Amino acid sequence: MEDRHGSAAGVAAFDKNVKLGYAMYRAMGGVDHDAARDTHAYRTSTEYAGLVYGKAPYLYVALRRALGEEALNRMIRGAVERTKFRVVTLDEWMAALEASAASAGEKSLIRPAFHRYLAEAHGDQDLGVDDSGDFLVAHMLPGAMGQELAGAMKAMGLKPKDLLQMLLGGATTPP
Questions:
Q1: What is the pTM of this model?
Q2: CA 130-131-133 angle, 5° bins
Q3: What CATH number does residue 115 fall under?
Q4: Do 16 and 94 fall within a single domain?
Q5: Which own/partner pairs from 68-76 qualify as long-range (CB within 8 Å, at least 24 positions apart)?
Q6: Range of 105's domain?
Q7: pLDDT digit string, tens, across residues 90-149
Q8: CA dihedral of 66, 67, 73, 75, whole degrees rounded to 10
């Protein structure tokens, strides 16, 4: 998307297709957790989707920002070449990325980024999302429609998350 339509379009597409899942999970009362755990450790499919598909991909956004697009692409290509036709563990994938790093500085950024995005709970801070549901309204209903909905909810004393929980489950009565 970014290559064809520019940086803003790329960010908007990533927000709608990735971050929105994390924002929905948080607005529905989900708590940020680590993403690098066995699938049976997730309580619901919404938790899994929010953390694995909605938060964890921002690891590569952070690496791209820190390393630059060219360096990150070179490291990923090298890691894929080293691990092709195999199923690898997370540690093996990180080692393959490190082996593809051109410098010690590049190599030293990989494990801390993986740890932050996969083993820690900084999703709200890293993604600029919280449990209010405001991100959902702004990105699912941009422009006048979203502003009207936000105004109507405010007049009723509702936050976006309250309305979502009433409509989709989680809350039984208005606040």
A1: 0.84
A2: 95
A3: 1.10.390
A4: yes
A5: 71/101, 71/102, 71/106, 74/100, 74/102, 75/100, 75/101, 75/106, 75/110, 76/100
A6: 2-127
A7: 999 999 999 999 999 999 999 999 999 999 999 999 999 999 888 888 887 777 877 887
A8: -120
